[in-house]
Specification:
Blueprint: H1 2-20, E1 22-25, E2 29-35, E3 38-43, E4 47-50, E5 56-62, E6 66-69, E7 73-75, E8 83-93, H2 96-103, H3 107-127, H4 134-138, H5 142-157, E9 162-173, H6 176-248, H7 250-265, H8 283-293
Antiparallel strand pairs: 1-4, 2-3, 2-5, 6-8, 7-8, 8-9
Length: about 290
């Protein structure tokens, strides 16, 4: 009875000690085994590991890529136009031993404070360098600037055991006091461009109208010339016919022309004609009357 009384608690203590000496590292983390604050072992591969109970402790760190949003800062490019920059970074803990020695018990929070200082310093240095203007920062060319910021920040962050994977500029804007002046200048530039386009359009329209008017004049002139030629040819042909008719029978031709003159002279509405009987106008009528009387 006494043996079982001491035996069972002993077994329980052994089981508890065995369980407290085991720990598991999964694929999403890295672990350090510390003994009185000193690093005794590093475990970066997932699996089951051992430690000395009560003497050693396990500190775990996330092995995934982490995100850090930087504070909004103002930078001054080479053209002296201040910009408000808001960036973010992607990083991971690459060397847990260096990381632990650099930040101690402060952990990720202290590391991010230091990394943010590094990023802000590199952002100011790169965006404020010579040949870097605000137009470059606001254009697609800032991809190269972000790469430079990442590379320089990565080199500085190695002392913290961190690997800076990427740095991106989320927003790059003008300060609020400069926005209105910038917008006004942009509106003026767009209005000037619109006025230039309208002027060029009016000039092109005038050229088209002038060309159309000249084409109309040339077409009408050509048509009038052709019409005059046709009329001249028709008159010549008519006179030729008249001449041939006159040559065939002058007496009949004279009679025919007199009838045409009578038709034009004696029309509806002309009630009275005063003329001497022996006038040549009624030459053929008189001859007809004389022959009729005879």
């Amino acid at each position: 009875m006494k043996k079982s009384t001491f035996f069972l608690p002993g077994i329980v203590l052994v089981i508890v000690a065995a369980m407290s000496s085991l720990f598991v590292v999964d694929e999403r983390e890295k672990a350090l085994v510390l003994q009185f604050g000193q690093i005794k072992s590093v475990h970066e591969e997932p699996g089951l590991y051992f430690k000395i109970p009560l003497i050693q402790e396990v500190v775990r760190y996330d092995d995934r890529i982490l995100s850090l949003d930087t504070e909004v800062i103002e930078v001054t490019p080479s053209d002296d136009r201040r910009l408000v920059v808001d960036a973010f970074a992607r990083y991971r803990i690459a060397d847990v031993e260096t990381f632990r020695r650099a930040v101690g018990a402060g952990g990720v929070r202290l590391a991010e404070d230091r990394l943010q200082s590094i990023l802000n310093a590199q952002i100011r240095e790169v965006l404020g360098a010579d040949q870097v203007t605000s137009d470059t920062i606001l254009s697609e060319d800032r991809r190269g600037l972000m790469t430079r910021i990442r590379d320089q920040a990565r080199a500085s962050a190695l002392s913290l055991g961190l690997d800076v994977v990427d740095v991106r500029l989320k927003q790059t804007n003008l300060p609020a006091q400069n926005l209105e002046a910038t917008f006004a200048r942009m509106r003026a530039e767009r209005e000037r461009e619109a006025a230039d386009e309208i002027a060029r359009g009016n000039e092109a329209a005038q050229r088209v109208r002038a060309l159309a008017d000249r084409t109309v004049v040339e077409t009408l002139s050509e048509a009038e010339r052709e019409a005059n030629v046709v009329r001249g040819e028709a008159d010549a042909r008519r006179n030729n016919i008249f001449a041939q008719a006159y040559g065939a029978d002058p007496e009949f031709f004279g009679f025919y022309r007199s009838l045409q003159a009578y038709e034009r002279a004696i029309q509806s509405g002309n009630s009275t004609m005063v003329i001497t009987p022996d006038s040549d106008f009624f030459n053929y009528l008189g001859a007809v009357e004389g022959r009729t009387k005879n």
